[in-house]
Design a protein that fits this description.
single chain; alpha/beta; Rossmann fold; six-stranded parallel sheet; 12 strands
Length: about 290
């Protein structure tokens, strides 16, 4: 890609958007972000004008309607952000020959697998969130030059996530945590994902790639490791998903096979335990 042209990042206030912009800055890549207060990506005219005026080398779409349970009752609103807006981005990118990098999710799978999902495994989302994100993937594929990066269980700086929720419970003095033990996935630190996204862009990757920190655990295992690394004297009790009924069905297993990522950029991402250590050790996470 032409290094003289900037990167555009949507969802720049979110934890992944912030991480991508920070990583691009560290690499001296000119970058501009936008969020809902500057550009409504569901507005085709606004999106098209914004992209055409700036002529970016790539648009990295970190914007999404991510309230999984809310999507069940607001699927039309979720579709507008997670799918229709992606079609607008793809059309604008085609107009000026820019690459579209779309961030997607493990929720496009039904969660019945017994081994990590590969990029070409059948998709069958079991929730409104997963359905709208799958439609977003389909919209992204209308971009002549596109890359879809599926990831999972994100946490980072400046957003709400599982690590923060567990830490708040510990800080509040809770001595027993009840955490689901029958859902398995790949916890992923936004800083590591941001580096992978820019590495993929640098090598001209296209199609679909799974990117997540290495290793698979349950929410219970993740919580136990958070408590251990914090030195917290708490009991982490394993419970079944059925004890915490939620509007949206979660995949029971959504580990991601990242072999293609390793082939493309020459490395796997660090283990999820290592990533957690770096996140908790940062002053920003304190």
């Amino acid at each position: 890609m032409d290094a003289r042209r900037p990167l555009l990042v949507t969802g720049s206030y979110g934890q992944l958007g912030k991480a991508v912009i920070a990583e691009a800055g560290a690499r001296a890549i000119p970058t501009e972000g936008c969020d809902v207060d500057t550009i409504d990506i569901a507005n085709r005219g606004a999106v098209t004008s914004w992209i055409i005026e700036r002529r970016p080398r790539a648009v990295i779409n970190c914007a999404a309607y991510t309230a999984v349970d809310d999507c069940e009752d607001h699927e039309d609103e979720a579709r507008a952000v997670n799918a229709t807006a992606v079609a607008h981005l793809a059309g604008a990118c085609n107009t000026i020959g820019s690459k579209l990098i779309q961030i997607s999710t493990d929720y496009v799978f039904d969660g019945t697998a017994k081994k990590p999902y590969r990029e070409d495994d059948p998709v069958a989302p079991a929730s409104a969130y997963g359905r709208t994100k799958l439609l977003g993937e389909q919209a992204a594929r209308t971009a002549d030059d596109h890359l879809i990066v599926r990831t999972a269980w994100l946490y980072g700086f400046g957003g709400r996530h599982f690590v923060g929720a567990i830490r708040r419970q510990i800080d509040a003095g809770n001595r027993q945590l009840r955490v689901v033990a029958d859902q398995f996935g790949s916890p992923t630190f936004c800083d590591d994902l941001a580096a992978a996204i820019l590495d993929l862009a640098a090598v001209g990757a296209s199609g679909t790639v799974h990117a997540a920190n290495t290793g698979i655990t349950s929410w219970h295992g993740f919580a136990a490791e958070i408590a251990r690394q914090l030195g917290a004297r708490v009991e982490v009790v394993a419970v079944a998903t059925s004890e915490f009924p939620r509007p949206a069905r979660r995949p029971a297993y959504s580990g991601l096979d990242t072999s293609r990522l390793a082939e493309l950029i020459g490395r796997r991402l660090p283990t999820w335990q290592d990533a957690l250590t770096r996140y908790l050790g940062s002053a920003c996470a304190s």
